Amino acid sequence: MTHTPAPSEAGATYRPPLVLRALTAVSVGFGVVAAFMILAAVLVTCHMIFVRSVLGQSTIWQTEAVIYLVIGATLLGLAYVQKLRGHVGVDLLPGLLPVPARRVLAVIVTALTIAMAATMLWYGWEMFHLAWERNWTSESVWKFPLWISYLAMPLGFGLYLMQLLVDLWIAAFAPPGALPEVHPERSLD
User: Fold this and answer.
1) How many domains does the chain fold into?
2) Which structural domain, as residue segments, surrounds residue 129?
3) CA torsion through residues 124, 125, 128, 131, sign
4) Which residue among 24, 97, 104, 136 is buried most deeply as judged by most CB within 10 Å?
């Protein structure tokens, strides 16, 4: 017989406010965009291989496009990976702490991460704005407008910052059962 936790134990009935759910939905949406960007990078790579190997022609834009797509996907996917708790983290200390101390630690760590993301957003915006204002293009034959690829940095870190704010609210105000659980290390057996 299995034990079904009470709603207060697992936070099963807890629903964050609508604005937090909406921000989380935006993170998921950009996670899908990032996945399609990776798919596009794979297809462009296949096209490049075909053009070089089968047709014996040189390629102009493919390598650069793949680089921009993968970097863009990485940055635009930050918020989605944060939502999944997929970023690298050390969970030994939180696993040893009681819930109130774990909550305090989560608030402190999330606040520090917000400061880092805000800094990256600020400098990313400056870089994008310079590329836009000065009409910078890549040095390749393709002459791709760099503002498009540079836009991924402030956009990605802005989305990441929003997801971090959602996580901060949950860490600070959600019932204890709704806090993210520390994932114990699983054996390979």
Assistant:
1) 1
2) 16-178
3) negative
4) 24
